[in-house]
What does this fold into?
Amino acid sequence: MITEAPDEFAHALPDSGRLIGLDVGTKTIGTALCDAGWMIASPASLIRRKDFKADMAALADLMRAQSVKGVVMGLPRGMDGKDTPRTQSVRAFARHVEKLGLPLLLWDERWSTMAVERAMIAQDMSRAKRAERIDNAAAAFILEGALAALGRL
It folds into this structure.
């Protein structure tokens, strides 16, 4: 099940269990995980994209190892709120992730990377460290937004 409605997503989830946040890019997939009580989202491992089959295998392995019960995937809409070619690409990726059998929430991520980068700059983080950590931090930001909408954060 894929939805953009937090309430619908919440009804499809068990009462507890880890959720994974995804920031799907063309070169990497940033990941973040929350605890089983849906209170804290933390950056997890970065998946460097190779080919579709390898990407899906890496994602499935991570989800299985972490006992994930639901997926929150960033949806990169245009600043006007409309779909772009990148949005369509992420929707297609979501249809493949849905085959893993978990509820999936598409979450508006328009400001995630910008907000995370500003926070990293405020922490005086070097450009190299920002580049290394930004995708997973953006995934955590996306997941935190969804947790807040679910009323758990």
